[in-house]
From TrEMBL:
InterPro entries, per database record: Cation/H_exchanger_CPA1, Cation/H_exchanger_TM, cNMP-bd_dom, cNMP-bd_dom_sf, RmlC-like_jellyroll
Key words of the record: Cell membrane, Ion transport, Membrane, Sodium, Sodium transport, Transmembrane, Transmembrane helix, Transport
Taxonomic placement: Eukaryota, Sar, Alveolata, Ciliophora, Intramacronucleata
Gene Ontology MF terms in the entry: potassium:proton antiporter activity; sodium:proton antiporter activity
Topology in the lipid bilayer: Multi-pass membrane protein
GO cellular component term, pick one: plasma membrane
Residue ranges occupied by any Cyclic nucleotide-binding domain in the UniProt entry: 737-848
UniProt source species: Ichthyophthirius multifiliis
Primary location recorded for the protein, binned into one broad class: membrane
Keyword flag Transferase: no
A GO biological-process term: regulation of intracellular pH
Protein name: Sodium hydrogen exchanger family protein, putative
Residues spanning the membrane: 25-43, 52-69, 89-111, 118-140, 146-170, 222-241, 253-286, 306-331, 343-365, 377-399, 411-435
Subcellular location: Cell membrane
Amino acid sequence: MNINVLNNEHNTQESSSVHEGSEHQQPLILFFVFFGLFFGGILRQVNQATKIPYTPMLIILGMIFAAYRNELGFIGDAVKIWSQINPHMILFIFIPVLIFESGFNCDWYVFKRALVNIILLAGPGVFIGATILAICIKVILSYDDITWYGALTMGSILCATDPVAVVALLKELGASVQFNTLIEGESLLNDGTAMVFYQVFINLEKGRSSNPVSVVLGFCRTSLGGPFLGIVMGILGSYWLRRIIRDDVLTSTVTFIVCYICFYLAEFTFLAVSGILSIVVLGLFMSANGKVKIYPESEHAVHTVWSFAQYVCETLIFLLTGLLIGVEIVGQSTITTSDWVKLIVFWVLMIITRYLMVIILMPFLKQSGYPITQQELYVLVWGGLRGALGLTLSLMVLVDDEIESVRLKQLTVFYMAGTATLTLLVNGTTCGALVKYLNIVETTAIKNRLLQNTVKNMINNCDDKVKSFKGNNFLQMADWNKVEKISGLEEIKNEMYRSQEGVNISQRKSTYTGFNKNEVLQEIRFRMLRSMKGLFWENYECGQLSANAIKLLDEAMNRSLEHTQKPLKLWDLIFVNFSDFQTLKFMFAVNNWIIIGSIAKTYILQHLSFVYEVVSCFIQTAHEIEEIQSSLPISQHFVAQIDEELNLSVKLAQHYLAELSDNFPQIIKSIHTKKAANSIIEAQKHFLLDYRNKGYIDNNDYIHYRSKIDKKALMLENMEFDLVLPTFQSILLQFPVFNSLTEDQLKLLQQNQKMKSFEEGEEIYTKDEPFRHIYIITQGAVSEQITQNFSLHIGIGGILSYAHCVSDSDQKSVCTAKALTHVKCNYIPFGIFKEIMRNNRSFEQRVFMKSIIYFVKINPDKAGPLKNLNENNLNDYCENAEFFSLANTQNILFENGAYIIAGSMKNSRSQEVLDQFTYINPSNDNFVALEDVYLIKFIEQVVKKNRQTVMEQVEDVDQNIGFQIKNIKGKAKDVEMEQIQF
């Protein structure tokens, strides 16, 4: 490790006592790093146990080491070596890590929304603060031995708040994300602007003559050039990261490379721009764009590495600050008793200054971003903690030989170290109490009720576990009373009992019915949007969403989360990001031109693929979230209202997909092909990972095959597809449902088909009206309204309708089909289609399987647990089931249940007759076909998801808890537990 050492005159004697040989110094340098981290680890645990701020303890520890360095032997020698480090090295080595890590972990969406306010606080705010602090130093504290330029230099340094300390504080406060990001963003940017102001004023203090024009131009170059460099390096870094597959080490290394190269180019080349600002912008750029360029499996490793680096740098900076204060100031200082008194006064003035700064900017802060309330203003002022960058800059002043005033040097370090310690010790430890006093973090009654119900469900779940464990042969000797006590279950039950003790039923009921309806709906929207956001990220991590798609969907969820008091309009937030059809049609028109054609074709495929994956993922996730919402411990009446809002967006999304198919049918095939191929690749990845984890294959084999799969994924990403319109013949040849047909059967379909077009909104067939044809869609999309609350959207290659194929020719239609867009269909006489089905059992089986969803929804009373499954889950069960065609009098067993598609059967034991569209429960009874029967036999039992309403669910939980609490308390009377009633 190479460290620049300053040989100041007052350190000459001390330096001579240190062993001169580099062979002896280098081990001591390395030793002190880990020695410092050792004590840092101890103090970190002290902080966790006592809440004493971590960084002030490090400063004090460093000062103790410095004070006793001559008595500490080789440890003292290491202290002497490190105490001579040039503070510029602290800035170059440690500060980039702290700044980048804070920016990288910032919530970009919220930061972007609050950007104007952040710039106001970090730009004009720092200048106003530095000016007022300089006036305080010169006028109120009467430091006449310091020049105005020196006072402005001190003011600039003392205005720099510490993002690391602020982030640590915000995690404990529990304030809103918007307010947290405002404070964190201000701390990030004001480090850069404080550094720029410091450089301007320190040069003036050194007597370097500059005219106002050159000062302004230099300031603009430094403050604007740094962010521009950060963006350029962010683009290069993202480009590199996008091409790294499953390499945690290289991914983490690249982030460090771009961070330090960016800082070096800014500070040490002809660019001469702000290194701090360039790192701030680089970190924010990587937060906005770089995160989604990182391979999902590597993201956790990258954040772990950066968290470790941030902790190491923070620990060493504050420890070194304590060492340098102890060596440079204590014992040879111009600091007097009056300076200590003035320090306390200055700390108060600094808080007042920050308050004045915010008040001056308040009219502008209310005009953009997230408006600041009066309560948040107080927390913003009180939460301005000082830390690493300010200390580093003060140490740079201390060792700067060009500054003649020793008094300025030592006062700068004294005030910076003092205010850092005071803000961390006083402001940091009391900010939580201030937030609580001002009631900034307000918990609604409905949120408390949801939390209470969650605890009840957790207790019930734990009791179920206890019951199952009691039957475990390896746990029979356990003391279950002690288990409940050790695990905390008994304590939770007692708290639940105490919270409900003395409350009668009428009081409870009135409490629940008193909830504000809008408040309940707002809470449901919040939870639903947060769940959807999580599901979108799961899809991204599983490879089902691209980086651009997850960014769009994540931002749509974030924007919706800001307006949960209003009905959901998710589709409007998504749709606004898509190109209009006229632009895409123009691209199609020029896709065969020279040069521009290849650009147009690439744009078409990429944009429409992007649109399709966004819309299809949104629709699928919306269907998933409906099931999740049904288990939310809130009255289903409110949940249903939110589901209606969501379904409106889903219908608009489905209509847009239909328009997409209608306007660009040639691209849909390519999109479907790419999406299906990607799904197969992801399935291969998960399969190999599962087999490796189970020990079926060793790691070398896993790496070998996984690298092949990764290459295929990369090829797929860059693969080009032909933009060809699908024809009726291509549909018959390529769509899965038709690929079992023989050549003669395909020819028969082609000979008997005719083309027909339908305009948007036109009915193709109507429920309860006779049907004579089977339709195959070749362009556009159709909605089949099966019941009042359920419809299917059928696209290119779909059959209208599978349910008709099961029916006899004289029957009537079971649903209504309506064109969502301009639709082209090839229709085939019903008799021809049925003849092909009778002659091709494989094709017949596929058609019958596809028809089940219709009859389950039409006949829910006969569908058993199948009625509780959504379309995807039902299809999964049916795909895994066995299809049977039974002749009259044939016998069969249904150990896992079955579903009769056509015909009727009789239970030999109970003599019960079951007709078509009926679910048969799992049993060992023998069933006899009473006529020709078509059915599916499940190979696994359909899990019946009895989703109770909240009132039933919580009542059951409450009753269980009531009995358990009575046992704990030894009470003789029954404890009546309430049920939620909104």
